[in-house]
Amino acid sequence: MASNKPSSGKPYPLGSVYDGKGVNFALFSAHAEKVELCLFDKTGSQELKRYVITENDNSIWHIYIPGLEPGQVYGYRVYGPYKPEEGKRFNPNKLLIDPYGKQLVGKLIWHKAIFGYDWDSPDKDLSFSELDSAPYVPKSVVVEDDYDWEGDEPLKRPFEETIIYETHTRGFTRLHPKVPDVQRGTFLGMSHKSVVGYLKWLGVTAVELLPIHAFFGNRHKKGYVVDNYWGYESFSFFAPEQSYLEHGEIKEFKDMVKKLHQNNLEVILDVVYNHTGEGNQLGPTLCYRGIDNESYYILNPENKRYYFDTTGCGASFNVQNPNVLTLVMDSLRYWVKEMHVDGFRFDLATTVSRQNKEFSQQSGFLYAAGQDPLLRETKLIAEPWDVGFGGYQVGAFPAGWAEWNDKFRDVVRRFWKGDLGQTAELASRITGSSDVFNYNNRDIWASINFVTAHDGFCLRDLVSYNGKHNNSNGEENRDGSDSNWSWNSGAEGESDNKTVKNNRYARARALMTTLLMSFGTPMILSGDELARTQFGNNNPYCQDNILTWLAWEAITNENRTYARFVKKLIGLRKKLKIFDRRKFFTGHPQGRNGIKDITWYTERGDEFTEADWHNPQRKNIAYSVYSGGHYVMCIFNADFNEQNWKLPEFDEKLSWTLLVDSSEKFSGTPASGKTIKVPGWSVLVFEIKK
What we know:
Layout: E1 15-18, E2 22-28, E3 34-40, E4 47-53, E5 55-57, E6 60-66, E7 73-79, E8 82-83, E9 88-89, E10 104-105, E11 139-141, E12 164-167, H1 169-173, H2 187-190, H3 193-202, E13 206-209, H4 251-262, E14 266-271, H5 288-296, H6 322-337, E15 343-346, H7 349-352, E16 354-355, E17 358-359, H8 364-371, E18 379-382, E19 402-405, H9 406-417, H10 423-430, H11 434-437, E20 447-449, H12 459-462, H13 498-516, E21 521-525, H14 557-576, E22 589-590, E23 595-596, E24 598-601, H15 610-613, E25 620-627, E26 630-637, E27 643-646, E28 655-661, E29 675-678, E30 682-689
């Protein structure tokens, strides 16, 4: 504990900074009347000393305490009016996390003391709680950045060479038999050689982790017994989730990143800057609400007791406030510069891109991200929608951004489900969705193509269930999307019927082949390559159990065979060198030979006509791409029946090689002008060259 008297310190940088002699603390609050710094023992259970912060420069409260060292545990108490109807919710009885705190200690205990109001009062949030929350909340920890990266840097792999693997830190390793028990479900588990070796074997190039910002997972709210498993309720944008740290040290995250980088795997973080875990007016007071509710959240202008919310989670984070925008940008730069991550996927990115409550390419956030020299060299991926007015903005983000393309997801699902009238749109989606993204000199990789993601059916369930089965979530199956575009292949749920199982694997292989033989950036949901099931649950946000964990020891020989098939597709995608293009197709002759960059063919061996594009009964299509002196041709047949297919009249000197048959039923010898039989529910991939 420091023995010297504190001094005024500096307003920047924000947070707690150790300089070798002491620690500077700086906190933004525009409306506070008084701020106290509280120091605790290493466990965070006993308060040792309290300092009143008297210096306030431009709404930055700051103090310097000599003699303090890394490992010091602390929190803030912030004083001011408690007038919820005016948007003011100060309550010094609530100990608050440092928004810039880079490490936390202690668990969140869901007790009525963590709320700014009296939980038992009939006036609810208009009442005032005098209970001290300190025994029930995590505290911030002073850290020192002395980690040895051993020369590691972000990999900066081109987007067009990227194959994303979306996974959950806990669920991916929780049941892994080769990971030590204490490391399962942690960053060290993700960096275990058996886990990294598997990812490298599979061939993906980037691991996208569901939220790892501290969200206080596995808490149990009173009267609400499900868990916060996915983690889309961040409480800190700097500190990693404690339950993912075996020893509570942030170096464990850095160890994971370094290990993945050593194996040529990028790390992308799913980040949630659109709202926080404090929720609406009935949520707890743990950080931002108690520091400066009016600044950190967008309030309802008609009644400031309530919030403006485009997230469905209670309150939109006020990125339009310059100081809050600074917090977000500082957080992003921290994870790139100090933690070496390679990119970000922004949850509900429309919300953080709103200006005066409407989405705008000129919003402060998009402008700041676009001009930042560090961030513009990372991968920036938008989930381009929220639940507010005008929230659906697929294709509207600036050049340099990639976006989740739900249009790809839906049409691919519908095509392989057997829905009519899907062929024309499918053609656009598998060639990068130029109708959506080809403007302002954007590149073809801007489309993040996916068939499944954490939200919705996994691949096996997509071909095994007609409807969602979410009863275990405790909401009487009301939650989760009803628009799944799924088909159970003949029986609902798990089945031992051989025909049903064969149908499911055939359609799953066709779906995965379509994803990896499409142009844009593919994203695979973790476990899909192993035919993992969630037993029909399409919204398992609260399921921290076998429903969402990858059951490694339950993998069957059929699962392994399917995984080898996916590995083959990934390897083929890399080898063919047609998918690493940056620019969209034109369909026009290229170069001196006059061959089109892409051509669409019917089963007659002819190019598509206007009538073919508008034929709603059509369930098949083929493309050929000419690149580097040879062709690659893919035939997609979503009909249950096999299809007689005349191959195009290419030069007879060209040799046809079958690279992929997703149905595993094709027989015959392909050649220019020859008629073959394309199996039902299949994708055939040929290479045609001299």
